Structures
1.
Amino acid sequence: MTAGSPTDPRPDPNPPPAGYRPNVGLVVFNTEGKVWMGRRLGQSGPNNWQFPQGGVDPGEALEAAARRELWEETGIRSVSLLGRTEDWIAYDFPPWLRSKRTHDKWRGQAQIWFAFRFEGPDSEIDLAAHPPPEFDAWRWADLAEAPELMVSFKRDAVAQVVERFAAYATKSA
């Protein structure tokens, strides 16, 4: 059970730190213990891979936001919840990104991270499930390599996620 879910009466955690956009991050493990990573559409490499993530709508429970974002970005619905972080993990936007209109009011993002086990076939994955697509390719990767595949300003936050979710990077029965 997860705080804030329909089956768990505990409320979602305290609001994120002031100045940070509330967000959810998702790590999806397959039955081999590998994690799903998407390549950001239109961004040159090599550090253009990331986990699904997205904003939380006003009044939306965090787990509901996580499942919605997962479906919108990947088409994935066949998952079971493994766990989540209890506290927010924040990162700052770099100056060049903060100057963009969509990021001008936020210092960065604070995320509650969810770990899910993917229980469907790879054919369920549909990067165009909810236009416009966020990713132009996807792959299964080792959890430990994730921070090095991402943009530098997210690496410290993702390293914390890797540490907290390492126990899930095992084969499932």
2.
Amino acid sequence: MSNKSKLRKKYIQIRNDISKEQLLESEKNLLSIVEKNLELKKYKNIACYSSIGKEMRTEGLLDLLLEIGSDVYLPKMSEGSKVLRFLKYGGSKSTEENSLGIAEPIGSEEINPKNLDLILLPCVCFDLAGHRIGMGQGYYDHSLEFSLTSRPQLILLAHEFQKVTNCFPEKHDVAVDACLTNEQFYKF
């Protein structure tokens, strides 16, 4: 088992062990930091994820993004492909769960990821060099292969306890610009 696999296993377990109360408190703190530190109104086209399990919750953030007038997109998986499609999100009533229990938009309005201004990503853990470990399927790495000169801002959403010393990045891993946790905003 690689160091990356060991970290993934360890931090999935740590994340799964937090209480519902801790999860809700983390979301509340994250939203407070977002409102104080991020100039969300400057981003028109924003992709986010629909949280599952004990991932950093995004329900309140998705509502906030819609309230400020952003065009919000959620990833949608396509059978047989590792490349995510980003479809317009119109609120929780405009989604349905896929086979993994992830809420995906049911509409057909799609945006090319290159036309997004900001992408908010989940992670299992992250390091202060801007690397992340995800669930191991590589969906975001396959979907975010942009040129370095023109790409959206990439910001992780995570619990503070998900910060690690090293994520052991590989050549294909896409680094992010920042991470927003329930305690602070890290810029890389």
3.
Amino acid sequence: MDYMDIFGVWLSVFLTLSIFSYLYKDNPFYKAAEHLYIGISAGYVAVISFWQQIQPNLFGRLWPRIDVNADMGIFKSAWYFVYDVLNWVSTLGGWLDRSIFPANGIKGFDEISWIYVIPFILGIFMLLRLIPTLGWLARWAIAYIVGMAAGLRFYGFLNSDVLMQVKAATVDFSGDWWSIFNGLILLVGTLSGLVYFFFSKEQTGIVGKVSKVGIYFLMIKFGASFGFAVMGRISLLIGRFDDLIVSNSPENYYATMWLLSAMIILLGIWAFLDKPKPEDLAS
């Protein structure tokens, strides 16, 4: 095992113990790990989104690969002049390597998709949020994103949560007795759950009894979902404990033992220095 692998093991142990230190109370170790995790996650998502979505699907459709020997015309030549300007800006005047905007266009598509000029402009509007005098232009992009997402979500929920639920609640009496029994349970659970959320009528009598059955189904569903979530978190916790045990081996120079001891000592010193003074308590 080389030194970089050992450094990675020690860093992993340190961050794990830093997060676990929150069980004591909020402290500098936990804050450092929390900020590092959020910062790296945001940066990683931004980089992945750019190279997997923006660069190939947006820039690649606006400036696809072209044949430099073909006659492009004045308008197309001007359009690819914009491409060269963007490349000059992204490479800081040619000082960096040409990776975002390769020479002669981006591979993947054959023709220019002019409709993608609209999301390109809206993306620029989103960046103008950083300029106070032009920040109002970002409202157009936000309105488009919210409206489009609402429409797509509505269609998705209509298919997954309504139509599929209606289809699942139908009972196929041509099947075996076990499938019929399961279908009846789904039908009763769906109808009783809907009755429980029907607040236009007082839940008394038959309606109250049916809604009470719906409560039982809802509690079973919530309990199963919560138990599944807890089991998933427990499996992650077991995995971290297993890594801490493996990292406490001679090959890793007993990383867990040394880091845990150092953190306990430093947290003790920090707790002693962070103790409020009598005059602060009096004020």
